[in-house]
């Protein structure tokens, strides 16, 4: 039980710190694509750490299952969200060309 | 352990406030949709912390439902925003 408590005490605040850093990026980054980075990667890591930290406190294996499910689900969905939002923004012309190093979606080549 | 939970929830609340700042400021609809998606992820984290305080996953249903609705809602809203952008 002690080991589980240490795991939780480390992982829960660590995950929350990742979430705060991601949210800080959401608030501070200059354009949509950089905010997309802050919205997906740190948030996913933060959620996974919190889920593992919470799983350490569960009393039975059956209680861990939904946490694992949510973790896998987050790993599957956050790239889809990033792709959808990014592609929509690009098509709508909301991506500033000056912020792009390489523009492989440009049809003019 | 209570201090750990309080610290975690406080940090998650701070993250929620920062995200809400982006939600208010925009400037585009896609920025706001993205901010709402981050809020749903933070909400899932908060519910997971609550599950940790209880020691059981009694609120597992809300955990999965919030995660699902966050994903479906974000993708739908993003596509809808794209459609509207093309028509104008």
TrEMBL record, chain B:
InterPro entries: MrpF/PhaF-like. It is a multi-pass membrane protein. It is found in: Cell membrane. One of its GO terms (cellular component) is plasma membrane. It holds the Pfam family MrpF_PhaF. One of its GO terms (molecular function) is sodium:proton antiporter activity. Keywords: Cell membrane, Membrane, Transmembrane, Transmembrane helix, Transport. Signal peptide: none annotated. The chain crosses the membrane at residues 33-53, 60-81. Belongs to the CPA3 antiporters (TC 2.A.63) subunit F family. This is Multicomponent Na+:H+ antiporter subunit F.
């Amino acid at each position: 039980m002690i080991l589980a408590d240490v795991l939780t005490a480390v992982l829960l605040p660590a995950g929350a710190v990742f979430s705060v850093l991601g949210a800080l990026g959401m608030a501070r980054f200059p354009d949509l694509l950089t905010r997309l980075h802050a919205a997906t990667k740190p948030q996913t890591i933060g959620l996974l750490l919190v889920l593992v930290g919470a799983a350490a406190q569960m009393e039975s294996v059956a209680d861990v299952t939904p946490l694992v499910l949510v973790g896998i689900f987050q790993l599957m969905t956050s790239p889809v969200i990033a792709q959808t939002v990014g592609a929509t923004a690009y098509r709508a012309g909301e991506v500033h060309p000056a912020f792009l190093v390489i523009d492989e979606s440009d049809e003019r080549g | 352990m209570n201090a750990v939970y309080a610290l975690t929830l406080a940090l998650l609340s701070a993250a929620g406030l920062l995200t809400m700042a982006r939600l208010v400021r925009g400037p585009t609809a896609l920025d706001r949709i993205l901010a709402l998606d981050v809020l749903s992820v933070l909400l899932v984290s908060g519910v997971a912390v609550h599950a940790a305080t209880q020691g059981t996953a009694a609120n597992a249903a809300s955990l999965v439902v919030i995660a699902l609705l966050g994903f479906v809602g974000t993708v739908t809203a993003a596509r809808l925003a794209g459609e509207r952008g093309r028509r104008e």
